[in-house]
Structure formats: structure tokens, C-alpha cells
Amino acid sequence: MTDVTMTVNGQTRSASVPPETTLLQLLRDNFNLTGAKLGCDVGDCGACTVIVDGQAVNSCLMLAGQADGRQVLTIEGLASKDKLHPIQKFFENTGALQCGFCGPGVLMSAKALLDENLNPSTQEIRDALSGNLCRCTGYTKMIEAVQEAARLLREETPAQITHARTEATAP
Amino acid sequence: MQAFGYVLAKDVGHAVALLAEHGAKAKILAGGTDLLVELKHAVHNPEILIDISRLRELKAVVVADDGLHIGALATHADIMSSPIIRSMFPALVAAAHSIGAMQTRNLGTLGGNLVTCVPSVDSGPVLIALDASVTVAGAAGQRRMPLPDLFVGPRKTSLKPGDLLVDIVIPKENLGKPAAFEKFGLRKGQALALVNIGASFWADKDKFTAPRIALGAVAPTVIRAPKAEAFLDGRKISAEAMAEAGRIAATEAKPISDFRASADYRRDLIAVLVKRALASAQTRATAKEKELVA
């Protein structure tokens, strides 16, 4: 068994799981966080996207042990108690989700993008969402929703840090 | 996935010792974006996974006396954001950007991409066009070999059980060499290459000098196009010469026909993409000259 302890949506969570357990299985089966979805299970569809240490990843392609000691953010951690995150609000306002299965993954990819870049071009949004397959709504309204969320977040954020994308040296 | 043991390597020496101990019963876990898929499909049935993904010493991108070293664990996202690589080799950034999607690029590593060794490996052509070599650590110490010697066939490398790919080295004489990457897939996102191309040359007195053309996805491994390179070497730089090099390169490949494209279509793509890659490298060479003048 592999013992893991990580911060999930701000809370410390621990579990002891077989080594072959994926992060997605850990989140869903052990932590009861069923927002991230099991779609293709091979990293094509993006329905299992979560953010680990600031980076969007497919949680079906990461072992639980690889997330040990890290910060994990899932769709359940996006809204605060009394308020939707702007990305959620504008996905709702624009009708960017129909069946919603891809939604948790799409929103986490959008979150990862906007955490780095509050002024994304349409092309940058398309690029960021290209790992999330949506087969019913399509992407037009999603892109619109991300643009609207970016606009609101820019208004809420001091101007000098609105384009916070850093070209950090590889660690 | 079937059950396996799991051990976290503490440093490169530890990883090599673990590999020596477990040999062919072990698989190395780096980014996991290929390995976990293969484990789920039971392509491998390792008794133990040796997790090297936290070895920060294998993520470094540094210029040393002998050239640019890119750690095997540098992710595609690391390559895209590395200031050194962005300034020296935008073609490597373009190649990294063409791999998978954001989620894959955040986990997948350069070393893993090379070791998986598919014919369409997007990291391969530009590195081969830049005469890259790879450093391999094993129980007997470290050794260096040209990157093409790593590639044996589809999903088959020359690495032996116990070997660990440590870094990828672009020799110092090629630092800043104008290079380009071209890829054609059936979609823009998450597409395998029907053809991918790496090209580089120095523009010395308006002549192609040390031209390199590497072709991906059109042979069992990434290959060079030596006849096209010989045609260009020392010739005056022109659009016509680039187009002719493309036509020659198309005759040097051995593409297959499959459900994605026919061999003839792939050959036609080679001619077009080689021409484009050479033109793009030329644009880069001109931009560098302007930088020098300014």
C-alpha cells in the first residue's frame, strides 16, 4: 500500500491505497470528490482534469502516490461558500454546458489558463481547452464564457498583475 | 491496472541502483502519460514501478561547456517556458507545443517522449536536425550516444534493462543554429503527426551550410534525408533550392499507408513541409542577422 497525504481544496487529506491507484480514483473513491469524471481513462478526453501544484493535469494519468505532498484543486474547490467562481458564473450565464459531463474538466483547464494569463487571446483559450473534449455544447459559448470571466477577473485585479504569465526557468 | 510495487527514487544513483536490482521486472515512471496508458492496456506487466518523477536534478535546462543539456524529466511545458530554449531554439518550443494538450504537456517529459519511441515522436526531428545526443546512466556508469542510435524501431530503443536516460545534449557548435519544426496532423489539437519535420542550417554567405533535414512518421524511426542535405550543402539559398530539397527528401522516406493517410499523401506532405521548414529556418536566420547588426 502507498500512504499519501495531500492538500485537496485547502484541506489536508490522507489515505492508504494500492500503488496502482490513480489520483482520479483516489479523489472519487477515497475522498468522495466525484466532480472530476472518468471518461476515456487514457488522457484523451480531459474530463478528469484537476490542478496539481498550479498545473492542469489528467488525474487518470497520475498515480495517487505522485500527488503525495502536493496541492490539488478540483472543481469542488472552485466556488467559495457563498459565491460561484467567475468562470462558473459565466459558464452558467452563457449556457456553455448542456449535459455537463465535460464541465468539471473544462472549468479546471480554464482556471489553470486564467491563473497564468488574464488576457488570453481566443487562440490561447482554444489551445488551453484543446485537451477537453465536449461533444454536445461545442466550444463557441465556452470560449465566450472564459473571455467574460477573464474580463471580470481583470476588473477585480490590480492592472499591473493582469498578465502574470512568467517565463520561469525550468526548475 | 494490475497490481505492482512502487518505489520512489531519491536521486539518480538510487534510481540506477534500483534498476540494477530489478532489471527487466521494473518500469521507470517519469511523466506517466504513455506508461500509465500502456499499463492500463496491459502492454507491460512490471513487478515494480521506479518513480523518478521527483528527481529535480533531471529537470534542469543548462548550457555547459559541451552544449545545451536538457534534463530527461523536463516536461514539454518546461521546454515551452524555458527562457534559454525560447531564445536559442524556438523550433523546440514549437515541437513541444504540438504534443498532446496542456494536461499532457504538464506531465509528459522529453525523455519519456523519446523513450516511448513511436515513429511520429514530435520531439525527435528537431533534436536530430540539431545533432543531439543522449546521456544514459547504467550500472557501468554514464555513456553518450547520438540520438538516432537510441531509436531502433517502432516502440523499440537501444536501451537495456537497467539503463536510465539522463539528459539530451545539443552540441555547443549548434547553439542558436537556425532550425524549424513543421507538423501536419488531421486536427490542430491532440493529433498524431502524419509527417513531422525538423530542419536546420547555417546561412553562411547566403549559402546553406551544415544543412540537416529529419523526417518523422514516415519510416520505422525518425530518419535523416542525406540526399536532400547533400543537394543543399554549399548551394545558394533560394526558394527553388528549398522546394527541390523537399522533392528529394520525399524520395528518401519509406512511409506506410494506414487509416490516417496513404503513403503517397505522406510523400507529398514531406515535399511541402520540408520546403516550409527550410523557409522558416531561413526566416529565423535572417532575424538573427538583423539582431547582430542592431
Q: Major β-sheet of chain A, in short?
A: 5 strands, mixed
How do the strands line up in the largest sheet of chain A?
A: 2-1-5-3-4
Helix content of chain B: 25-40%
Q: List the total number of helices of chain A.
A: 5
Architecture per CATH nomenclature, i.e. the level-2 architecture of the largest domain in chain B = 2-Layer Sandwich
Describe this structure in words.
The complex is a heterodimer of chains A (171) and B (294). The two termini of chain A are 30 Å apart. With 171 residues, chain A is α+β, with helices and mostly antiparallel strands. In chain A, helix 2 runs antiparallel to helix 5 and helix 3 (103-116) crosses helix 4. Chain A is globular, with a radius of gyration of 16 Å. Chain A has helices at residues 23-30, 86-94, 103-116, 122-129, 140-156; strands at residues 2-8, 11-17, 49-52, 55-58, 71-73. A five-stranded mixed sheet of chain A has the order 2-1-5-3-4, sandwiched between helices. Chain B is an alpha+beta fold and 294 residues long. Chain B has three domains: 5-51, 2-Layer Sandwich (Uridine Diphospho-n-acetylenolpyruvylglucosamine Reductase, domain 2); 57-174, Uridine Diphospho-n-acetylenolpyruvylglucosamine Reductase, domain 3 (2-Layer Sandwich); 179-289, CO dehydrogenase flavoprotein, C-terminal domain (Enolase-like, domain 1, 2-Layer Sandwich). In chain B, 38% of the residues lie in helices and 26% in strands. Chain B has twelve helices and 14 strands. In chain B, the strands form four sheets. Chain B has a five-stranded antiparallel sheet with strand order 4-5-10-6-7. Chain B has a four-stranded antiparallel sheet with strand order 11-12-13-14. In chain B, strand 11 and strand 12 form a beta hairpin. In chain B, helix 10 packs antiparallel against helix 11 and helix 11 (239-252) runs antiparallel to helix 12 (263-293). The radius of gyration of chain B is 19 Å and the shape is globular. The mean pLDDT of chain B is 96. The chains are: A alpha+beta (171), B alpha+beta (294). The A-B interface holds A 2, 18-20, 22, 41-44, 46, 49, 55-58, 60-63, 65-66, 109, 112-113, 126-128, 130-132, 166-171 and B 1-6, 8, 29, 32-33, 36-37, 39-40, 49, 51, 53, 56, 59-61, 71, 74, 77-79, 81-84, 86, 100-104, 106-107, 188-190.
